[in-house]
Automatic annotation (TrEMBL):
It comes from Desulfopila aestuarii DSM 18488. The chain crosses the membrane at residues 21-42, 48-72, 84-105, 111-131, 138-159, 165-186, 207-230. One of its GO terms (cellular component) is plasma membrane. Belongs to the BI1 family. It is found in: Membrane. Keywords: Membrane, Transmembrane, Transmembrane helix. It is a multi-pass membrane protein. The lineage of its organism: Bacteria, Pseudomonadati, Thermodesulfobacteriota, Desulfobulbia, Desulfobulbales. The keyword Membrane applies. This is Modulator of FtsH protease. It comes from the Bacteria.
Length: 235
């Protein structure tokens, strides 16, 4: 009887810790998306987007974004929490600059509509990742292979310029990033359950930043894939 009560108490404590950690992750994700959205909108509204698009600086920004993600992922265990926060915020700003281009290609109403569709799909998969008892590790590995395939096919299609391949990549991309959302949510939930909340403020902050970055990337990429289907062209 006592052992059963103790196990219930431990399970409740783990669930509470997981909920607190997930809340921190979602807060940072929301901050990142908010920064990106504001920067993208005002960059487009000010006319800076047209200048960036016609400048080699656009490609420099893309390379800088990739470098920041790789650096943050590789060095998260060694850098300060404040550095991780600054890198995540900086990445959100740079992504806002490059994503401002969508306002040149699509109408504002279709961008807003696609954003809400993305939010609905993301929310549904997030809930699934939180409540399912199924281990999604296998799904995560499969989706990661799909992601590699999408990246390779996207590079190839730069030269082929095939509309059929373009739509196939888009459809597969939607499936990949919805699957990765559920997998990443479950992984973050387990981080909370396995004791990250007891590792100190610095570890919590860095863990939350990395979790937020994963979900941020899932959301942004899902949004961009869906925008290919639901975005209304300005032409």
């Amino acid at each position: 009887m006592y052992e059963q009560a103790r196990q219930i108490t431990i399970a409740q404590a783990r669930q509470e810790a997981s909920s607190i950690f997930l809340a921190k992750v979602f807060n940072w994700m929301a901050i990142g998306l908010g920064v990106t959205g504001v920067v993208a909108y005002f960059t487009a509204a000010s006319g800076l987007a047209q200048i960036l698009m016609a400048s080699p600086l656009f490609f420099v920004l893309i390379i800088a974004q990739l470098g920041m993600v790789f650096y943050l992922s590789a060095r998260i265990g060694k850098i300060q929490a404040s550095t991780a926060t600054a890198l995540f915020t900086g990445y959100s700003v740079l992504n806002g600059l490059t994503l401002s281009m969508i306002f040149l290609a699509y109408t504002s109403s279709s961008i807003a509509g696609t954003f809400f569709i993305t939010a609905g799909m993301f929310g549904a998969m997030a809930i699934y990742g939180m409540v399912t008892k199924r281990d999604l590790s296998g799904l995560g590995s499969f989706m990661f292979m799909g992601l590699i395939g999408v990246l390779i096919a996207s590079v190839v299609n730069i030269f082929l310029k095939s509309s059929s391949l373009y739509w196939a990549i888009s459809m597969i991309g939607v499936l990949v990033f919805t699957g990765l959302t559920a997998y990443d949510i479950q992984k973050i939930k387990r981080m909370g359950e396995e004791g990250i909340m007891a590792q100190g403020d610095s570890a919590i902050r860095k863990g939350a930043i990395m979790g937020a970055l994963a979900l941020y990337l899932d959301f942004i990429n899902l949004f961009l894939m869906l925008l290919r289907f639901f975005g209304g062209s300005r032409d």
